[in-house]
Structure formats: structure tokens, C-alpha cells
């Protein structure tokens, strides 16, 4: 049985349509780490908060057992956990996992398959996403864990590539803009915790050498992120929104959400906005002359 098949077959608690995506999220997190760092161990105490945040944001309302997959995934044969002194997993207790220096990694036969068939990393990620989450959440999950669905060659053991997506980019950009769309001011949150409908947009695209730095980022709502990447919107050097004259919107709602942004000033974060990144966006993405504010 291939790793993809085994990953989809992991035991999960399911009853009356309720979901428990804890194990799939840990597998996705581990695949992202494998892309970036190869077979380096994942220390529980260092990632406990990140894994819990993933379950809270992408799991069911009021999730329980945030810590349990780190230990219980070992029962599916894909994952191993050892303590600081080389002993076996101390069990599912968070305090014991912390105190023992527990670290997890893919089982040796899984690592061997991922090394022999690098494309399996992305295939498994797609399968886990499709089997556990709606498509609308896929990009957000990948962004949160730093998983690149276009990267098919993981790093060799002990080698970290210089050019990797930074999983902290989204958090840093949203924090810099105080969790508010820079264009329209949208700032929705779910249960006063996780932001909903907000993205960290690259001004100069990552795929075209844009850095994962705050001065190359904008916190945008999902609508304005798409319009920014499509070239409908851009920013001038004095940080005012420009709307392409090629955009057609006939309803009052569309005019309010797009045309009315023309000339609106964006307050840059403390780190500022890189002028070279704005110049690149206007030259390479923005669709022609803007409309009068």
C-alpha cells in the first residue's frame, strides 16, 4: 500500500457526521516540514502551539484533544515518536510529551518512499486536503503550514533550501496591518480568535522572486486579494489605491466594493511598503491606466 493510501486510511473518530481532522492536519504539517527540512525530527514542545492553532482554525467548533495525534498517529504505522533519551513515546499526555523531549517523524519506510518518489509529498497533500476539507480552505491551510503544492522535490536530510516559503509570513503581515484589510477595512474574526476572510498578499509574487517579508505584503480580504492579483487594483507610490479603468462593475455593490476604493490611502505598517515591489506590481500585474479618484 502506498503512502497516499495509508494516509487516507488513518483511523479517525467519526460519528454522526462529526469530524476530527487532527491526524490529517498533523500529516499535512509533517509533509510541509519534510519539504523544508527533510527528515529532521519535529519536537513536540516546539510545535505544540502551532498544531493546536491549526486545529482551532480549521477543525470543528470547540475542538478537544488538540494534542492527541502526536502520539496516537504512531498506531497507524506512518509516524514514530521517541523521547530525548531514545525511548518510545511516553503516551498522549501533553506534559509527558513536553518533559520527555518527545520528537516525531515519519516512519523509516515512509521516508524511503518520499525520497524515492518525491512527487508523493504533493500527491499525499492533495489527497488529505480533498478528503478532509472543502477546497475553499486548502490555500489557507497550506499558507498556515508553509506547504508548497507546486514543489515536488523535498530537501535532502540536513539541508535547508535558501528559497522556501516562510510559514510565518501570513501571521506577520496580518499582525502588521492589525488584522484588517488594507483596502476596505474588513476585519472579521471567528469567536474573537481566528481571522476569517483575510489573506497575506504578496505585492511582488513569491513565484517571481518576491520575498516573504512584511514590506512585500498586504493584508487583504479575500475579494480584494483576488482583484489585486488579477491586476484590477494596485497601489501608487504614495500608497493610494488605484483601480484599472478596464474593470466593469454595474451594480451599486460592485461600485462600492471596487470603484469607490480609487484614491483611498493605505496606511503602511511600521516596516513600510517596498517601493520596488509596488513598481513591479504596477508594471507586471496592473491592467493599464487607472480611473480618476
TrEMBL record:
Protein name: HNH endonuclease
Coiled coil: none
GO molecular function, one term: endonuclease activity
Pfam families tied to this protein: DNA-SBD_ScoMcrA (PF26340), HNH_2 (PF13391)
Residues covered by the ScoMcrA-like DNA sulfur-binding domain: 3-148
Boundaries of every HNH nuclease domain copy: 181-235
Residue segments, region Disordered: 81-102
Secretion signal span: none
Keywords of this entry: Endonuclease, Hydrolase, Nuclease
